[in-house]
Amino acid sequence: MPFIPTSIATAMPRRRVLGALWGAALSLGLALGAATPGTVQAAEIRVVTSGGFSAAYDQLVPLYEQATGHQVVTARGASIGNAPDSIPSRLARGEQFDVVILADAGLDQLIAQGQVESGSRVDLARSMIGMSVRKGTPKPDIRTVEALKQTLLSARSIAYSASASGTYLSNELFPRLGVAEQIQHKATRIYSERVGAVVLRGEAEIGFQQVSELLPFKELEFVGPLPEEVQQRVFFSAGVAVGTRDREAARHLIRFLAAPAAAPIVRSTGMESAAAR
Asked: What pTM does this model have?
């Protein structure tokens, strides 16, 4: 899996990628009787997605809309946690969606709670946790577990996500490395915005989040992924929300996002396509 995004043209000529995706959307649309360009019937599909899959999602959805005539309305929030805009909080207060996209553990919990349809989960992509710093500042070494530990101890300030990656760091990795107590005064859990934005403003020296959420910050220096021995790989998965207004349209969009033709775009954002397994 690449950690620094290559252009889509490198993985596959862009024209071929777009053509394959267009064909996939049209084929699905025809198979399900969904709207295609030139028809008058089109669905509005309401989606709530967490940040991990957003970089790929933001490229794929316009292609889907162009090919099918459907309109996708998007809301965003963290996979877990009780922030007002987190996906669990949105669903708990009754916000209505057709498709829910978030880290697999969070989706499984929503299925168990009866908020996402059982049996509707589809894995879209797998992400890893990485670290970034501001360009022009020293680039810390995190290539080994010991180097990562020393970087955490020597950093003046640390930012990490309040969602799935940050929960792993605070609950598992920091205690495992034996640094939890030493860094608690300088490590900040970030709610309702991306960690990269905090690092960019200079409010944290180093920042950890899903690789796909750090790479869009071109003003930052992506240091790399966590060492393999302590890495956490997370699938970002989609499911059909209980109470959807259009189950077939919801499934249709999910199948498009998971299609093998979408893999080059997914990989260009620093994730591994689930379709490539």
From this structure: 0.78
